[in-house]
Design goal:
By secondary structure, the chain is α+β, with helices and mostly antiparallel strands. Helix content is 28%, strand content 23%.
Length: 269
């Protein structure tokens, strides 16, 4: 008889920071201050904004030089010209927008305003994604494992997720999304496995990293909670050996995306 897996979500509070700092050291110390410890198979979810601030990715908007294309984008979607300039610099493509927001493609992922945010930072500033989110996640993974070993806590399985919030088409509110990850597989390929009636699944994949980011987002908060670190305990499926290349990534190209491809080729009733 199968047992039902139980997942524990543990928020970790820490001080707000607005200057560069050592991310690994701060995360480790915050866990210690909370009288928590890392266990085998834990997944540590970190706000991508918090990680970006640690790398000095805050930008003073008054110091941004605005180009002609940014001025046009700002006028069309009612953006601050300086923010529009940063969006263009950070985006692989701009798909369109509404008043106050544009929809960008950043490393095959769709993000409002290229993931640039002005909340929970001093007025007149914005914060961008970490310059290399996957390297940031990998560095944190290695630091936390080493710190645990130095405390004679010899864990081997540890996942890291850098998370952000996203809107979903036609749905109200935000959910979590994994910007980057390390030490775990971010997707589980369900193709070929049977459903309750024995029918084999054809296309289903489980977006593990995104679902865990959403679980973390529930306790991490979106405003003044001050909990940019979350430990998720009990989800061991993320550490099984990948059974396909799809279990090693979270994104597909815009051309493979159901939503984007459908919008490019609408069916008019």
């Amino acid at each position: 008889m199968k047992t039902n897996p139980r997942i524990t979500v543990i928020p970790i509070s820490t001080q707000a920071r607005f200057e560069k700092f050592d991310l690994g050291s701060e995360v480790w110390q915050a866990i210690q201050r909370s009288e928590e410890s890392l266990e085998e198979g834990d997944i540590v979810v970190i706000s991508s904004k918090y990680a970006a601030i640690s790398e000095g990715r805050m930008v003073k908007l008054s110091e941004v030089t605005v180009g002609k294309q940014a001025k046009s984008l700002a006028a069309k979607y009612d953006l601050e010209p300086e923010l529009a300039q940063l969006v263009l610099q950070e985006s692989d493509a701009v798909l369109g927008g509404i008043r106050g927001f544009v929809l960008s493609v950043v490393s095959d992922s769709i993000a409002p305003n290229a993931g640039i945010d002005k909340s929970n930072v001093p007025k007149g500033w914005s914060v961008q994604y970490p310059e290399n989110p996957f390297q940031t996640a990998l560095n944190l993974h290695e630091y936390l494992l080493q710190s645990a070993r130095e405390k004679e806590n010899h864990i081997h399985k540890l996942g890291i997720i850098l998370s952000d919030s996203r809107v979903t088409p036609t749905r109200l509110g935000t959910v979590g999304v994994a910007v980057a990850y390390a030490g775990m597989k971010p997707t589980i390929d369900m193709r070929g496995t049977p459903d309750l009636l024995g029918n084999k699944l054809i296309v289903t994949l489980k977006a593990v990293a995104d679902q865990l980011a959403t679980a973390a987002q529930l306790v991490m908060g979106e405003s003044n909670e001050g909990r940019p670190i979350v430990i998720i305990r009990g989800y061991q499926e993320a550490f099984s050996e990948p059974r396909s290349d799809l279990e090693k990534k979270t994104t597909i190209s815009p051309e493979q995306c159901l939503i984007l491809s459908s919008l490019r080729d609408p069916f008019n009733l």
